[in-house]
UniProtKB/TrEMBL annotation:
Superkingdom, natural source: Bacteria
Binding site for ATP: 30-37
UniProt name for this protein: DNA replication and repair protein RecF
SUPFAM superfamilies xref list: P-loop containing nucleoside triphosphate hydrolases (SSF52540)
Entry annotated with the keyword Nucleotide-binding: yes
Keyword vocabulary terms for this entry: ATP-binding, Cytoplasm, DNA damage, DNA repair, DNA replication, DNA-binding, Nucleotide-binding, SOS response
PANTHER family the UniProt entry points to: DNA REPLICATION AND REPAIR PROTEIN RECF
Cross-referenced NCBIfam families: recf
Amino acid sequence: MRLDSVRLSHYRNYESLELSFSEKTNVLIGENAQGKTNLLEAIYVLALAKSHRTTHDKELIQWDAEAARVEGRVHKRRGDHSQEITISSRGKKAKLNHLEQRRLSDYVGALNIVLFAPEDLHIVKGSPQIRRRFLDMEIGQVSPVYLHELSQYLKVLKQRNALLKQLSMKGGDETFLDVLTEQMITLAVKIVQRRHHFIAQLEKWARPIHEGISRGQEKLVLIYRSDTFSNDLLDVEGMTASYTQKFGKIKENEIRRGVTLFGPHRDDFEMEVNGRNVQTYGSQGQQRTAALSLKLAEIELIHEEVGEYPLLLLDDVLSELDDHRQTHLLDTMQQKVQTILTTTSVDGIAHETIKQAKLFHVKQGAVILEETSYKEIVGEKTDE
C-alpha cells in the first residue's frame, strides 16, 4: 500500500498544505522546528486517529483555529480510497471514502504504518507503559477487534476502580464488584491472548533481523510478562481460572487500596539478548539494535497479516544509527516499502535509496522547494 497524497488544514504550524508522494522514498529536509515532524505526525494521525507525541488533541489544532483536518489518498491492491480525520473541541470525526465511521476501531487499519523515531529507543529501555502502548497501537492496526476489546476493558476497569474507591471509603454491597470482575476477566483473556500471538509473530521476524544486524553474534527473544499466569498456560479455561483465583485472593486488598492491582493494564514484555535482559543489562548499541529489529519486524508482520507492506515513517533516525545499522534500514526501504523520512541534511548518506528519492524542503510550515535532485543538494555534478 502507499499514500499517494496528503492535505493538511490548520494542523499545528501548517495553515494549508497539499503534497503528492513518490511510491518509493520521500525525504523531508529542513532545520529543526520547521514542521518536518509535524507532517509525519499528521500522517500518523491520519492512519491511527491519535498522535504518537501527545495525548492532548487540542495541541494538534493551529492556534486560533477551530479544527484541524488531515486528508489522504491511499492506494491498495484492491483499489484506492480516501481517508479523513478532523479534530476539534467536540472530538474526532473519521471518514473513509467520505463516510463517517461510528467507531474509530472501524477506521484504524485502512492505512497501515510503521513509525521509527529516536524516542522509540524507550520501547527497549523505558517503562512498561511505553511497551504496552506499543503493543496496543501495533496490534490495533492488524486487528480492529482488538481495539474494540481493549476499549471495553478500559471502560470496565474505570468502573471497577471507581467502585473499589467507593467501597474503600464507605463500604457497601460487593455484588456489582463481582459482576465487573467477571466482565473484566472475559476481556482480559482475549486481550492477553492477542498480545501473546503478536509477540510470537514479532519475534519470528525480529530474531533473524537482529542476528543479521549483529553479524550473527546475538540472539533476540521476546517474552510476555504477567504476574497472573505462566506463558505455557494460554488456553481460555486456564487463563480464566487463574484470573478468577487471583482476583479472589486479593479482593479485600483491592477494596482496602481502592484500585485494581493487576491485569493486562499492568503487564509488560521483555527483550533478552543472549539470555540477558537488554533493557537492564544491554549496551546502548544493543538497545538500538533491538529497537531497530522490532521496527523492521513490524514491517514484515503487517505484510504477513494484511497482505501488503505498510508505509514507513522515519523521523530523524538516520543520524542516530551507525553506518551498519543505517545500511540495514535503507536496504529494507529500497526493496519493499514506501518511505517518508525527515532529516536536517542528506550530506554523507550515499545510499542509492536516498539518491533516487523525491526531496522536499520544509521551512516554517511550508514546502518551499519540491523534487530537487540529490545531486543538486550535495553539490555533485550531473552527467551531461
